[in-house]
Amino acid sequence: MDTQLTTLSSFIIDEQRRLGKQASGEFTGLLNDISIACKSIASLVNKGALAGVLGVAGSENAMGDAQKKMDLIANDLFINALQHNGHCAGMASEELDEILTLPEGKIRGSYLVTFDPLDGSSNMDINIDVGAIFSILKAPASGEDPTAEDFARPGVEQIAAGYCLYGPSSMFVLTTGNGVNGFTLDTSIGEFILTHPDMKVPETTNEFAINASNQRHWEPAVQQYIADCQAGETGTLGKNYNMRWVAAMVGEIHRILCRGGVFLYPIDERNREAGGKLRLLYEGNPMAMIVEQAGGLASTGYQRIMEVMPNGDPHQRVAVIMGSKQEVETILKYHEA
Ligand code: FDP
């Protein structure tokens, strides 16, 4: 029996010390707040119909997506976990129209948090993987309320990013800019335990993930790349490919961290004006930081995702091509042609 378990909190405290960071405990506290939101969500997702959390809420978010009951519950759980303890100064959520400042009387902390509280929520009612994604930025000046511009920072300025996958087991995957580590929720003690230290995306792959039903709308570069994948070993890429589509970005990126692959939600005719389908602050930037920290690449096809300058709209969209380094480089060559 292993008695030397590393919990998420003890890992963060050790890492902060190792990196010589001034340890006021605020950052550790913030991650603890986020992990509590994730544990509460995991517990409800796990109970599913028994907890009465399936089905639609009958409302839409700022992007016009129909909200599920669990979208709203997960959003409330994140807000509640973040607004009381004085670690966070403000939040931006995929489920809220505007950024959220704290109620009067609450201590404004040193960090901003953006989150997608229930990624892949269309999977919720069919008992397939969903997740949460978050990104942490420095707040402008301690004690003040942030504005929307304070969230409009490029991904390279993220202090930390992570996700929680609610799958057969719940996993919290985190980067603070020093590699990527994965923790599995031990429900019997209510703690995330380090089980996947120093996760690395394999450099090469023969697996791609894309919603192929959108094929007729893609740009020529992506059309050609996927056609060449499908041509297999007799085509120009010279190998047979496998395809997966979980329809929850957290599930796709977790698979890529575990065994390699590429995930594409590219620009297409319908989303060109918006910049893509997925959200820059809640999905693109945090997942790009995780994938890059694990040795992979993350691009729009034309630019590194983490260097995209936000336009001030917290719901800005971005094209996403990320995963195994060599395969993303191959896809980028199609975009140069
Ligand atoms: P969802 O809208 O269900 O939250 O966040 C966007 C996202 O899921 C991603 O997680 C997922 O990869 C993608 O959309 C699924 O898109 P399709 O509906 O095109 O399959």
TrEMBL record:
Residue sites binding Mg(2+) 2 per the record: 116, 119, 283
Record-listed E.C. numbers: 3.1.3.11
Cofactor: how and how many bound: Binds 2 magnesium ions per subunit.
Domain (Fructose-1-6-bisphosphatase class I N-terminal) ranges: 7-197
Keywords: Carbohydrate metabolism, Cytoplasm, Hydrolase, Magnesium, Metal-binding
Gene3D superfamilies on file: 3.40.190.80, Fructose-1,6-Bisphosphatase, subunit A, domain 1
A GO-annotated cellular component: cytosol
GO molecular function: fructose 1,6-bisphosphate 1-phosphatase activity; magnesium ion binding
Signal sequence segment: none
Catalyzed reactions per annotation: beta-D-fructose 1,6-bisphosphate + H2O = beta-D-fructose 6-phosphate + phosphate
UniProt family annotation: Belongs to the FBPase class 1 family.
One Pfam family cited in the UniProt record for this chain: FBPase
Binding site for Mg(2+) 1: 94, 116, 118
Fructose-1-6-bisphosphatase class 1 C-terminal domain boundaries: 201-335
UniProt-annotated location(s): Cytoplasm
Cofactors required: Mg(2+)
Oligomeric form and interacting partners: Homotetramer.
Amino acids binding substrate: 119-122, 211, 277
Protein name from the UniProt record: Fructose-1,6-bisphosphatase class 1
Any GO BP: fructose metabolic process
Record-linked PROSITE patterns: FBPASE
Entries under CDD domains matching the protein: FBPase (cd00354)
Pathway(s): Carbohydrate biosynthesis; Calvin cycle
